[in-house]
Fold each of these.
Amino acid sequence: MKKFEAVVFDMDGVIFDSERATMNCWLELAEKYGIENMEEPYLACTGTTDKRTREIMLEAYGDDFPYDVYAKEASKMYHEKYDGGRLPMKNGVHAILDFLKYEGKKIALASSTKRQTVENQLRDAGILDYFDELVTGDMVSKSKPDPEIFLLACEKIGVKPEDAYAIEDSYNGIRSANAGGLRPIMVPDLLPSNEEMEELSETVLESLIDVVGYLRN
């Protein structure tokens, strides 16, 4: 088995199929209001905080773009569709969490999403108790790709970054984990791996089931 003490997970796009769910809400809004080319700026926002997402959208559509109004409507749509445990989980979530618990490894979360949302979604899915620590977007001052969120997660679980794997789906997440000295594993979601990601990651795998196999060997 690989030598490591902890795994730090991203949440959106790694544990939940929420990146796709959120994008579908935004694409629905774009169609409703005639906003063109929404997919490209949305994908640029993956793995970032609400603040950085707002900046990216204003850069794409101009300072007069009513981002806050649209974000509120997209959020309402999302919660109506997926709250209460209806948010689909990615394949292999229970398998990897059970494996890590059985092996006595620390489990942390480093998500750019707000803490209350993170807690609600993990609780609704019945997996909150697996996590030793949650570090969320409202607990750090810098967004991914800055390593602050991963370094704080390692600090909270008492593990050196080099002894922790980070599981990420987004480019900014992999950049963040690599910059923090963790061992990044990319499990691509909306964005495919590319040459930079191959270079920054210890490995790129198709699913969390594959990650369990990788860690076991």
Amino acid sequence: MNALVRYMFTVILLSQRYLAPVLLFVGLMAVLTSSDSGPLAATYGSATGAMLVCSVWLTLALIGLDDQPHPSIVVVNAGSSLRVLLGSVGTALLWCLLLAVAGLLLPLMFGSHTLAPADLVLGTEAQLTCAFTGIAIGLVCSLLVFRGRATRWCSPRCCWP
């Protein structure tokens, strides 16, 4: 499983499809917390909203990363499609953990807040909850579930033979 997560992490890293969600997350954190001196829990609330959007986007980018024959080759090499799915979820969770760390630290760097351990625990729980929810929404909305005619019509690859 570690090899599959490392492989998918490398593939999304080299394809640079992680860049837009990560830049959106950092941009939202910079805008929403730059001149904030209020309570840290409210700041973490805006971070969780950004985490939800970016975790859905990262999961959809990770699942729809490969062209048609490539996922079949990965499934054959991994042994089962369940392992590939769990590897995809593990990779998305790893990216969301990196975003959660950034979401906990960026409000402290951009704003002027007093740090309390209870606020850090609350922020961690809220961000991980939104990360898990975003990954679940991304999996349900991915090409693993919707393989009908509409997804092929909406795909950019539909115009080429």
Amino acid sequence: MIKEKQIEENLIHKLTEELKYVYRPDIFDRNTLEQNFRQKFERLNRVHLSDSEFNRLLEDIISADVFVSSKRLREINTFIREDGTPLQYMLVNIKDWCKNEYEVVNQLRINTKNSFQRYDVILLINGLPVVQVELKTLDVSPRRAMQQIVDYKNDTGNGYANSLLCFMQLFVVSNYSNTYYFANNNLQHFNFNADEQFLPVYQWA
């Protein structure tokens, strides 16, 4: 039986070889994720931020509200720099998608004060995590992975609420044979258990 690690490697190979994602094994924790986002942000917006400006930007854009984060992804936003001048910036180039940078990371660990979670595969656009893929072996039901994601979201102080993971748009779960996906949502609308399906979950053809 194919192992979970092999399924993960196969997915990454497909993303890099066929879809031209860049594999980033050097991004493995919160710090490396944030530093990569800083590089992508500065390149996309043709700006150089001081350390204090970047830290303030993180505080400004990280939100526990999924809808606020989703809206910020798609709009032109404003940030006031240290000298008082406004910086009009984008997180994703909606009009010209080829100017965005697409990367894939695996086994990312986001440690917060209360949570020590690790994520199988995450897709990044301009350094922002937007799609999470949880993989299981054939003998494990994808619903186990769904429940795992919900448990992660319900974990006090989880990374989805206080790190760049707040920009997550889509969750994908697969056991190589069956693949399902569902959108991110705020906690009051994000409930699922193995017996009854509350989330709108869709299966890939």
Amino acid sequence: MRQLYPSREAYKQGKLQVSDLHTIHFEESGNPAGKPIVLLHGGPGGGCPSVYRQYFHPDKWRLIMFDQRGCGKSTPHAELRENTTWDLVKDIEKLRSHLGIDKWVVFGGSWGSTLSLAYSQTHPECCAGLILRGIFMLRQKELQWFYQEGASNIFPDAWEKYIQPIPVAERHDMLSAYYKRLTSEDLAVRLEAARAWSIWEASTSKLFPNVELMQSFGDSEFATAFARIECHYFVNQGFLSAEDQLIKNVAKIRHIPTVIVQGRYDVVCPMISAWELHQAWQEAELIVVPDAGHSMSEPGILSALIEATDKFADF
């Protein structure tokens, strides 16, 4: 099993104004002369913790990480206006151009895999490779599974806490009920909903639930951006023109070297999505980790991702 690379500080941090409203925070770490790779974090709304740097050989990669609109160190915090999938795709291109990069490898897990697919299908000429984890394509069956009925049958104890802020009469449509509260003018209502939403995801992300992860996801500042932005994207079906858009457009990226890492027991983004994507995209390598859930920090997924980043570094 592979282990994380030693921690290193970023050698450069910066801000990039991407609209009149939004400014994104970015950083570069590793080797300034290394192979460029951009990390697209999850959520949407998750931000980039420093531990992400440790998945990449520091002497081989020039790693670019940025906090997507409204989260992490990007501003304004938890902002939903001008915040769509296609705004983020444009931001990635603006950042690539700003940094003077011709082509880069794209690394993304969970929502980051969604955004990686959307970006690469829009700008295939800019992608030297894709490393994807925990495939999520924002289809209705995926949203229903996690936020309405499905995962609830595996984690009924955590589900009970997730539904608590929502009156029984509104529980037939949990996404809409949560969106109403996450956009409320009442701060207390927003925070209660944000914490319950975020802790539900943290409770289900690992094969063996992790209390520390739940506590970090319950932090008010993190939960507010995470829950608001996620729910905003999900009630709008990810701003896709069709729910199967990302799988239908595989032909645009079929030629790009790709590895997909998927936990067998991923409850947040069940393996069926990775399987169906792979069926449409046989050229992509699918690695199934037999003893893992959703989190990239689970030992088997961590090891497979580091194997993949090492392999792509030497292409």
